[in-house]
Design goal:
The protein is α+β, with helices and mostly antiparallel strands and 267 residues long. The chain has one domain (4-108, 126-265): Acyl-CoA thioesterase, double hotdog domain (Porin, Beta Barrel). 15% of the residues lie in helices and 40% in strands. The protein is built from five helices and 13 strands. Strands 1, 2, 3, 4, 5, 6, 7, 8, 9, 10, 11, 12 and 13 form a 13-stranded antiparallel β-sheet that branches. α2 (36-51) packs antiparallel against α3 (174-180). The longest helix is centred in the first third of the chain and has 16 residues, at 36-51. It is globular and about 50 Å long. The protein starts with a helix and ends with a helix.
Length: 267
């Protein structure tokens, strides 16, 4: 079993402000590029490792693609550090090309009062849900390192939910939730009436109460699609209904072109 840093493959260097992430198929999409949630998760892990504080929120802007076989260098800058809160950023580059930029706040404050004012959807338990099979399942991508079960499918409401676990992961953490929050594109695919693919422009993760749980319910709520872009939210619930985090994303939507009949017949 591994913690999230090991699961992602992030490693420190002799410089406490620099980390590196080999981009391998196991943290990449079936389309052959770094999964956005893994990039954000690695940046969060680097930020937490450098500042020695837990993340409160982090937002990633995705600028380019990192392909398997390359190495993502993650450089951390601490912009401001107070008694309880640190403001910092992490920039991920491959051979000098900027791939993603992550801004974040980290820390914790002594305050006894807590609360949760939203409730999880009423869905069956994971063992009672059918498996989710991805069309991008290649045998060597991030999807093959996850066990996912359909808990809710309501395309008319722009909403779906999947129970997800990572069998090799030791426990849930902010970097792991960053990976699991990168599923607004799934909501887009479930909602549209045409065959589409989409990739994230950004992802913002806000951490609530992280608790031990084997399964995480990714409750995906699509807000709007317009002008070739989609915007939505992901609520990340524990098995006992704790809201561990929320994620919000915008994504580029692309129509999948059908192959010519003569080519399709030969493949």
């Amino acid at each position: 079993m591994m913690d999230a840093r090991q699961w992602l493959g992030l490693s420190p260097t002799h410089n406490p402000m620099r980390w590196y992430l080999p981009v391998v198929p196991g943290i990449s999409t079936g389309g052959g590029f770094l999964f956005g949630g893994c990039g954000l998760g690695a940046a969060i892990s680097a930020l937490e490792g450098t500042t020695e504080r837990p993340v409160i929120w982090a937002t990633a802007q995705y600028l380019s693609f990192a392909r398997p076989g390359t190495v993502l260098d993650v450089d951390v800058t601490v912009a401001a550090a107070g008694h309880h809160t640190t403001q910092a950023r992490a920039v991920g580059t491959v051979a000098g090309t900027e791939i993603l930029t992550v801004n974040a706040a980290l820390g914790e404050r002594p305050f006894d009062e807590t609360g949760q004012w939203v409730a999880p959807p009423e869905v069956p338990q994971p063992d009672d849900c059918p498996p989710r099979e991805s069309r991008w399942r290649t045998g060597n991508s991030i999807i093959d390192r996850m066990d996912q079960r359909w808990a809710l499918r309501d395309p008319g409401a722009g909403r779906c939910a999947v129970w997800t676990r990572m069998p090799d992961l030791l426990g849930v953490s902010a970097p792991a939730l960053a990976v699991l929050g990168d599923f607004v594109p799934l909501g887009i695919a479930e909602t549209t009436t045409s065959d589409v693919t989409s990739n994230s422009l950004d992802n913002t993760l806000r951490i609530g109460r992280v608790v031990p749980t084997e399964w995480v319910l990714a409750d995906i709520r699509l807000d709007v699609m317009a002008n070739g872009f989609g915007h939505g939210l992901v609520y990340l619930w524990s098995e006992d209904g704790a809201l561990m985090a929320t994620a919000s994303q915008s994504a580029i939507i692309r129509q999948i072109r059908a192959a010519p009949a003569e080519h399709a017949a030969s493949t």
